[in-house]
């Protein structure tokens, strides 16, 4: 196995008949609660002759990437997905640095930005597709700085961090243009492409294929891009083709989870060049999928219903992997623990923070508790069991005492104009002779609120002693937000400077003013190097404070391990690591 020398497949199997490798963490999904197996594979074809078929496609409205070196992008929005029924194509508008039009970008919390620069458009299949031949005829956006891409995507991130034992599960196959000949962000051209495969976000679980195309494809012409995804255990591979000619075969890291097929134009941070233009277009003529009779798996994603255009009816898809999930993002079961769980020492009955770990979890204990309980551990406050309890990194919920969920205090009745998740009419597909925006419902800046601009300041307590206005929702029961705002949920993957999360439909301005972590730094570990000075070794600084403290985060990570700073993920001390690294490489905090 690539991550463990002298490993072998264990003979023991779980209830689904699956085995793992000796000495390697078990990050298989628990056996699904829905019927076993995947939907019967079916061929898929769309030439957009009738516009964008909403029973086949979702229009994305979300943002990813950006942030390092002050770089931000506007994500992808529905207004930039345009159907041209006369031509039988879909156009993806890309707005660069010089754009000053009316289409605004979107923030990661799904509120609208105040400008539209570095904003693209993307669509994804409603259905999850597995092994097969994927073919897209498209004309790429001919400007540097914007990435024209075709990719499959499956993502499960229950822990919101990447460790050597329980990596984020990210099964993905990419075709991305423009490309470059090596990891360095230089010699970026349209005669190069990035052909990538992923199964996770640590170094041994993804592979980048720097690929020469033998010709320039920014030629205002359609080209046929194809990859054949084989999941047969005897010969797993992905083969990439351009206009029928073979480009590359990948065998080292091959996904085996079904994913949605994405197509779009978006703005990465630097590796596609600088977007010094106003507007560019990527155009797609047809999409074709031919299934292979090969074995693959179909677990559920963490947040399959998050980040789609306003008015999207998630239930329209023809194939569901399981029973449709509720409106709030479903908490996909976390990957199973290692085959040999770490020894658990008896938890202290009390701690400086009050409480009892075995009964109540770690959320309300002192922030140093987990580091003393398990070396270099921290409290995973964003992940909770049915009683709202969190555990230390490296521990599992089975270590806690059994509990019965306490009733949640009922907040006051929500104002009549509280946000509603009821699906609205689907985007109009009015045939015209000229291009029309795929979604006629222009997203608003945020879900509607009461007249004061934020939800009523109601719930202050919980069975676990939390206070929403002071502490946010991460440590409150999972049912809290749906009672506070109709059909809401805690956006625990986003937080303010004090580490507090809010309910979907609320904003951080609703919370009480707090003292920023920046003004109250955590004490340094006794074995840590001295704080950053002009003569400090960058590696020591990184091990102490993570990569986000560097003025040029990505440059540091590129020199350190060829990666980039994953500033959007942090450990219990707010530290981020370079892509391909794990938090266990940092000093304890």
TrEMBL record:
Biased composition annotated in UniProt, kind: Polar residues: 445-459
Region (Disordered): 319-352, 403-461, 514-536
Bias type Low complexity, positions: 429-441
Biased composition range(s): Pro residues: 324-333
Top-level taxon in the UniProt lineage: Eukaryota
Gene3D superfamilies, A to Z: 2.60.120.200
GO biological process: carbohydrate metabolic process
Gene Ontology molecular function, alphabetical: hydrolase activity, hydrolyzing O-glycosyl compounds
Pfam family, one: Glyco_hydro_16
Boundaries of every GH16 domain copy: 33-295
Basic and acidic residues composition bias: residue spans: 414-428
Official protein name in the record: GH16 domain-containing protein
Organism of this sequence: Odontella aurita
């Amino acid at each position: 196995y690539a991550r463990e020398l002298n490993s072998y497949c264990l003979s023991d199997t779980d209830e689904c008949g699956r085995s793992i490798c000796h000495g390697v963490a078990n990050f298989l999904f628990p056996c699904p609660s829905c019927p076993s197996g995947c939907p019967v594979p079916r061929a898929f074809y769309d030439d957009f002759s009738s516009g964008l078929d909403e029973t086949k496609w979702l229009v994305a409205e979300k943002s990813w990437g950006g942030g390092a070196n002050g770089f931000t992008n506007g994500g992808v929005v529905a207004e930039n997905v345009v159907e041209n029924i006369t031509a039988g194509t879909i156009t993806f508008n890309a707005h660069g640095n010089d754009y000053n039009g009316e289409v605004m970008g979107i923030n990661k919390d799904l509120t609208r930005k105040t400008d539209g620069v570095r904003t693209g458009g993307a669509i994804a299949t409603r259905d999850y597709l597995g092994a097969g031949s994927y073919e897209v005829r498209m004309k790429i956006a001919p400007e540097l700085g914007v990435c024209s891409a075709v990719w499959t995507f499956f993502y499960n991130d229950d822990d919101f961090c990447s460790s050597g034992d329980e990596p984020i599960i990210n099964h993905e196959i990419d075709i991305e243009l423009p490309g470059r000949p090596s990891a360095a962000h230089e010699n970026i051209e349209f005669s190069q492409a990035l052909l990538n495969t992923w199964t996770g976000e640590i170094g041994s679980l993804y592979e980048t294929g720097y690929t020469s195309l033998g010709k320039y494809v920014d030629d205002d012409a359609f080209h046929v891009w194809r990859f054949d995804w084989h999941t047969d255990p005897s010969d797993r591979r992905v083969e990439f083709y351009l206009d029928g000619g073979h480009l590359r075969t990948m065998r080292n890291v091959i996904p085996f989870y079904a994913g949605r097929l994405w197509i779009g134009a978006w703005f990465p941070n630097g590796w596609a060049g600088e977007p010094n233009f106003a507007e560019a277009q990527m155009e797609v003529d047809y999409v074709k999928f031919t299934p292979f009779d090969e074995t693959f798996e179909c677990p559920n994603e963490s947040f399959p219903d998050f980040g789609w255009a306003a008015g999207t009816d998630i239930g329209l898809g023809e194939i569901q992997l399981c029973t449709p999930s509720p409106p709030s993002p479903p908490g996909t079961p976390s990957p199973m623990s290692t085959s040999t769980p770490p020894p658990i020492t008896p938890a202290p009955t009390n701690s400086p923070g009050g409480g009892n770990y075995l009964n109540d979890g770690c959320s309300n204990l002192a922030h140093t508790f987990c580091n003393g309980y398990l070396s270099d551990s921290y409290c995973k406050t964003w992940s909770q069991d049915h009683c709202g309890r969190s555990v230390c990194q490296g521990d599992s919920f089975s270590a806690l005492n059994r509990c019965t969920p306490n009733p949640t205090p009922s907040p006051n009745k929500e104002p009549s104009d509280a946000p509603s998740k009821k699906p609205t009419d689907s985007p109009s597909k009015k045939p015209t002779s000229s291009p029309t925006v795929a979604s006629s419902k222009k997203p608003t800046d945020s879900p509607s609120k009461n007249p004061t601009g934020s939800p009523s300041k109601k719930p202050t307590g919980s069975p676990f002693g939390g206070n929403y206005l002071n502490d946010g929702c991460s440590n409150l029961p999972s049912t809290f937000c749906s009672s506070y705002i109709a059909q809401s949920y805690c956006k625990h993957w986003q937080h303010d400077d004090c580490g507090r999360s809010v309910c979907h439909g609320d904003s951080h301005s609703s919370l009480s003013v707090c003292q920023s972590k920046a003004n109250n730094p955590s004490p340094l570990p006794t074995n840590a190097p001295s704080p950053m000075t002009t003569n400090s070794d960058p590696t020591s600084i990184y091990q102490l404070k993570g990569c986000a403290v560097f003025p040029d985060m990505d440059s540091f990570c590129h020199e350190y391990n060829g990666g980039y700073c994953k500033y959007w993920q942090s450990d219990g001390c707010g530290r981020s690591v370079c892509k391909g690294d794990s938090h266990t490489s940092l000093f304890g905090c």
